[in-house]
Design goal:
Number of helices: 8
Number of domains: 1
Shape: elongated
CATH topology: DNA polymerase, domain 1
CATH class: Mainly Alpha
Radius of gyration: 26 Å
Order of helices and strands: HHEEEHHHHHH
Largest sheet: 3 strands, mixed
CATH architecture: Orthogonal Bundle
Oligomer: single chain
Helix content: 40-55%
Structural class: mainly alpha
Distance between the termini: 106 Å
């Protein structure tokens, strides 16, 4: 078996280990497994908002028949499975162009975007450092601005003329 075969076996083993639930915390598991993988020559790619799935996956390494391990969103501390699933589903047809684009298309609450930002998940594809991603997230709002809320409430108020009950008239015309 050549070098690439050994490399692919090591990558596959790492992917399986990282994708299983471990009894130690996620950060420790990620550090231990990635350090061991790198020691054995396996390329480990970070969690990416545009490429990671829930579990770790194997990605081809350009120009070789080897594979790298892409860390999965399960390793992002505090990120709910449902939120990760919404992110993955929203980017199925097209990668996210920005934090705002990801938030609008995925429908994930703003508070849930902090965890991927803290894990630098916006860095590899959107080129946003942690601090820049957090600033972009702070600009988002799950609830509408007060001015728009007041307008929506006014529109929702019922106008009496619009809520009159349906009346059926039984008109009998007397014979002439």
């Amino acid at each position: 078996m050549g070098r690439c075969g050994i490399h692919n076996e090591a990558a596959e083993l790492l992917k399986e280990r990282l994708s299983t639930k471990v009894s130690i915390d996620k950060d420790t598991a990620r550090r231990l497994f990635t350090a061991d993988a790198r020691k054995h020559g396996v390329e480990v790619r970070p969690v990416c908002i545009n490429r990671s799935r829930w579990d770790c996956t194997l990605e081809p390494i350009d120009g070789t028949d080897g594979h790298a391990v892409r860390l999965g969103m399960r390793l992002v501390r505090g990120l709910a499975t449902a939120d990760a699933a919404r992110i993955v589903a929203a980017r199925a047809d097209e990668h996210f162009a920005s934090v705002d684009d990801m938030w609008r298309r995925s429908g994930v609450p703003v508070a849930s975007l902090v965890e991927p930002a803290e894990a630098d998940a916006f860095l590899s594809s959107l080129r946003l450092e942690r601090r820049d991603a957090l600033w972009a997230i702070r600009a988002l709002r799950d609830e509408p601005l007060p001015l728009f809320t007041a307008a929506a409430e006014r529109e929702a108020r019922a106008i009496a003329e619009q809520q009159e009950p349906e009346v059926e008239l039984d008109i009998t015309v007397p014979p002439a």
